[in-house]
Amino acid sequence: MKMNMMEPNTAEAETAGDAPSPKISARDVSVYYGEKKAIDNVSIDVFTRYVTAFIGPSGCGKSTFLRTLNRMNDTISSARVDGEILLDGEDIYRSKMDVVQLRARVGMVFQKPNPFPKSIYENIAYGPRIHGISSTKSELDGIVEQSLQRAGLWNEVKDRLNDSGTALSGGQQQRLCIARAIAVDPEVILMDEPCSALDPIATARIEELIDELRGRYAIVIVTHSMQQAARVSQRTAFFHMGNLVEYGKTSDIFTNPREERTKDYITGRYG
Amino acid sequence: MSPAILVLLALGLGLAGWIAARSRAYALSAKEGKRLHSLPSYHAWYVGLWAFVPAVIVALIWSAVSPQLVLAAMLSDPAAASLPAFGMTRNSILGEALGVASGSMQAVFDQRAAALVEPARAAMTKYTIIGVVLTLVVGFIGGAWSFLKLRPDFTARTRVERMVMALLLIASLVAIFTTFGILASLIFETARFFGMINPIDFLFGTHWSPDPMRDPAFANGEDYGALPLFWGTIYIGAIIAMLVAIPLGMGSAIYLTQYASPTLRKWMKPILEILAGVPTVVYGYFAALTVAPFIRDVAQGIGISSASSESALAAGLVMGVMIIPFVSSMADDSIAAVPAAMRDGSLAMGATQSETIRRVLVPAALPGIVAGVMLAVSRAIGETMIVVMAAGASANLSANPLESMTTVTYQIVAMLTGEGSFDHPATLSAFALGMVLFAVTLALNFIALRVVKRYREAYE
After folding, report:
1. Torsion angle, CA of B232/B233/B235/B241, rounded to 10 degrees?
2. Please, which pLDDT band fits residue B427 given cuts at 50, 70 and 90?
3. Which of B122, B154, B186 is the last residue before a domain boundary?
4. What is the pLDDT of residue A5?
5. Which of residues B121, B154, B187 is at a domain's end?
6. Cβ A130–B351 below 8 Å, yes or no?
7. Which of A204, A243, B171, B347 is buried most, with the most CB atoms less than 10 Å from its CB?
């Protein structure tokens, strides 16, 4: 599979002049739940300023693999990860790795919006507070405003920052969760089917947002919707039964897949 | 007359109805050659219940009424005219006559009772026969009426469903009416007490020394100031006990839900719950025989010579241990009920486990935790055995935990088991104290339920 590793294509207008070194580089990664192998020998590179989409049928391991990238699998006691995952060249599974720092650098947005049952302000301020990013109240106010601005939520909530985050609509809650992830200034944002609980209008709003955020971060998104992958991503990886079948430019994957299985999935023959 | 016989009679009628209806249903289906609307067993239950339930209701009512009728018959007998007027002697004579008449006693001790045995026996026989006949007639009417309704298309199935629902309703009403009955008697006796003692003196007075031997006419409101009891109750049950139970209960809940491995949790939780199953009297002697002397020795060891062997501290500490399971199981449930997505969200922000617990899980679970603490408090202030054995009897209005103190529950026991007669204010004060306790625990439970309800709305 390692031949799938792609150099950024300088011919792509929007990414011209990108540095070619990968942000995250996974090498021969296997994940086990107890005896069961959920991910088999996956190698993949993820780049800053790209949206990388993971697609594949349910249970193919794409979410599992996503969660290895910020070690959220650590919370499942039976999960075990083999292989190497490098963030800026450093193995995140080495014993000295500070998981807390890792997760501040690799943020995550979940399938179902999960704002804390606190005010909108407190939801955003949570990360900066625990990481000691801001020292004064005005600095914190600034971070909250900037994060909400970037998540495109500021205009909707600026007059009610003290209302509960759980009182927002589903789409707003998800943007709040994105703003919360942005607030600690991560380098990578992982999104695990961020739109699957949202209606089409809220979904469109999130997709726009993902496109705007791409300029600053490396974004990895797991999605069930091939249309969504085609709309928002520049790179697409197709997973099937724990294997990475094909990884390449989104346009290539959708118009000219090399693998038969990819073609079958994309044309809707299974999955 | 034994109510058991009448109930058995009703049961027999029900069974007879059940069997008759079942065979009738089979016969109907065989004769008409088509399927019945309901299975034969539903027809059987329909008739069986109609025969049994009215009969058993009549039987129970009759069992409650007939002793009064027997008594009335005895008193109307000419032999009863010679009975003494004084209540106790009179009652014991009547009791002897009844005992001999029913066969539970061999012979009378008081000769005045002998003359009453015959009328008592006659009355009992008469009313027993009436009871049996009444039960049989009612049961038979119910059974026959329902039996005549059986048809192939009779909707026995839905009707049995409705009858079952009615029976379940009755079952739940029994508990509710019992509560109201207890409350009514409490209110009645409390009103009698407040007829003798000014409620203001009772609620706000600071001196408590009711004397049950003193003439009720001279009962003085100054001796019925219950404030030291309220203070003792709150100090032991709501302050000292909670200082023990909240940190330990919360700590164990957090450890068990967040840190313990599933195997460890599987072992530790039931063991912790055993604490809740220990009889309070066992905690009582543990407090009185082990903890209280230990506290006294330590206090004397550090130079507090006045420390007594009964102390609020001993009772409060042991009570705190007793209610750890209440706090921890409620806290455990409400922390576990916080969606896993909250925890993941916090961990994914780079929060450590303890930051996640402190800043996300506990605040989200707080309503449930508060409700658990309130239930624990209401349990603690109603607790009796520990304070009876370890806290002492002296009504002290003091903040010193080493002093002996007394509580509302202790004084209720003391007043009711004391020498005073039942119309003496000292005895009646037990009801007023019980009323206060009832009002406070009711309010705490009510608040706790409201809090839990709001919490549920937030997460479902």
Report:
1. 140
2. confident
3. B154
4. 44
5. B154
6. yes
7. B347
Asked if the model's pLDDT at residue B97 lies above 60, the reply is: yes
Structure tokens at B458: 């937030």
How far is residue A78's CA from residue B437's CA, in Å, rounded to a whole number?
Answer: 51
Number of compact structural domains in chain B: 2
CA distance A5 to A24: 12
pLDDT tens digits for range B69-80: 888 888 887 777
pLDDT given for residue A21 in this prediction: 81
Q: Are residues B450 and B348 in the same domain?
A: yes
Whether the pLDDT of residue B419 is over 80: the answer is: no
Q: What is the mean pLDDT of residues B414-428?
A: 82
Return the residue in A111, A114, A118, A119 with the most chain B beta carbons within 10 A, the one to mutate for interface testing: A114
Task: For residue A6, tell me if it sits in a domain.
Answer: no
Q: Would you call A116 and B345 a contact, using CB atoms and an 8 Å cutoff?
A: yes
CATH number at residue A192: 3.40.50.300
- Tell whether the model's pLDDT for residue B3 goes beyond 80: no
Query: Are A72 and B347 a contacting pair at CB < 8 A?
Result: yes
pLDDT at position B93, please? 79
Q: What's residue A15's pLDDT?
A: 45
B352 touches chain A (CB under 8 A): yes
Q: How far apart are CA B242 and CA B334, in angstroms?
A: 19
Q: With an 8 Å Cβ cutoff, are B348 and A72 in contact?
A: yes
Interface of B with A in 355-374 (CB under 8 A): 355, 359-360, 363-364
A69 lies within 8 A of chain B by CB: no
Instruction: Indicate the residue of B344, B351, B364 with minimum beta-carbon distance to A117.
Output: B364
For the stretch B262-289, pLDDT in tens is: 899 899 888 888 888 889 899 998 898 9
Phi-psi region of A132 (alpha: psi -120 to 50; beta: other; left: phi over 0): left
Is A114 within 8 Å of B349 when comparing Cβ atoms? no
Residue range B9-35, pLDDT digits in tens? 899 999 999 999 999 888 888 887 777
Question: Residue B345 is nearest to which of A77, A102, A114, comparing CB atoms?
Answer: A114
Contacts of B346 in chain A (CB under 8 A): 116, 126
The nearest alpha carbon in chain A to B364 belongs to A117
Domain that holds residue A51: 21-266
- Among residues B175, B136, B129, B139, the alpha carbon closest in space to that of B18 is found at B139
Cα separation of A72 and B149, whole Å? 68
CA A51 to chain centre: 8
Residue A116 corresponds to which amino acid?
Answer: F
* pLDDT > 70? residue A165: yes
Structure tokens at B99: 């005992």
Asked whether the beta carbons of residue A116 and residue B342 sit closer than 8 angstroms, the reply is: yes
CB pair distance less than 8 Å for A103 and B261: no
ipTM for the predicted complex comes to: 0.85
pLDDT surpasses 70 at A20? no
Query: Minimal Cα–Cα distance from B401 to chain A, Å?
Result: 40
Cβ distance B350 to A181 less than 8 Å, yes or no, reads no
Q: Residue A3 falls within a domain, yes or no?
A: no
Among A75, A101, A181, the residue with its CB nearest the CB of B347 is A75
> Residue B348: which of A107, A117, A118 has the nearest Cβ?
A107
Confidence of residue A4 (pLDDT cuts 50, 70, 90): very low
Using CA coordinates, name the residue in chain B closest to A112: B341
Q: Is the pLDDT of residue A8 over 50?
A: no
Can you list the pairs that B188-194 forms with residues at least 24 positions away whose Cβ atoms lie under 8 Å? B189/B428, B189/B431, B189/B432, B190/B428, B190/B431, B190/B432, B190/B434, B190/B435, B192/B423, B192/B428, B192/B431, B193/B425, B193/B428, B193/B429, B193/B431, B193/B432, B194/B432
Of B341, B350, B351, the CB nearest to A110: B341
Confidence of residue B306 (pLDDT cuts 50, 70, 90): confident
**Interface residue A110 vs chain B (CB under 8 A):** yes
Contacts of B363 in chain A (CB under 8 A): 117-118
